[in-house]
Amino acid sequence: MRSAAAAEPCQWGSSPGVHPITLDAGGISLSGLCSEPAQETPRAVIIALHGGGMNAGYFDGQAHPDVSLLALGARLGYTVLALDRPGYGASAAHLPEGQRLTTQAATVRCAVQAFTARRAPGAGTFMLAHSFGAKVAFAAVADWDTDLLGLDVSGCGRRLAASTSLTGSDRGGRGSLRRLNWGPLSLYPPETFRASQSVVAPMPARETSTVAGWLRLSAAILPRVRVPVRLTFAEHEAWWCHGENDLADLAALLSAAPRIVTDRLPQAGHNISLGWAARAYHLKALAFFEECLTAKDTQRQADSSKSRSH
Fold it and tell me: Is the residue at 11 inside a domain?
């Protein structure tokens, strides 16, 4: 049972310790939110990418203290950077139509490399991404594994279960989009839909236009991902097909990933990181990242022992 004290909603804004940031990504200014741990050296850096029609605030939900990934990650020793993807936040005026998927991936990678070089040199990097942001993350991660330790994605499959005509519009009626994006409203803290007014944002036209092509693009992108991957689907996920055959198809295409973990999150809708299940999801993602860090340390020790034996 949630205590009465724990149920008190946060004031709208940002969680304690979370601050805005602006990064240069090859001449494009990307805004975002950042949180850093109390210790000087973070365990690693987590880059969080929001879905379509949202912004970086998706990862710092203000409807309840348990919802924010940015606050939780910092408490557990991570630097967390939630970016406003190209076409959102500070870059919206410069890129009013956004960028196509592969161009976004290059822009995001440029911003991430600039951030880690300046704020956390030598620290490993993880990516955590949702929905359309997961597509960008997959494209950014492809062929990039020098300092990348793992990828966690939610709300993204290969085959849409809903019509692409609903993406970025309301042609199916408000009820249709509400069901797809949220699922049962009881899955979210009561203040979610007031607090989320500052989180939603228009989906740029170029981003919308690439939705239908993901099935083709993913077949080329996913086999080039060479880091451990964790895939989460909410119990009430309605945008994507996520039956056993669909998960097997995803895993088969992630042929170069050394490890694939799949999870079905109960009592969750598509917007996982804003619901009551957010804390459980974030803790599971962070546990996965801890496992990746352990694997890296074990491999480093094995390599060191092997070099000494020679």
Answer: no
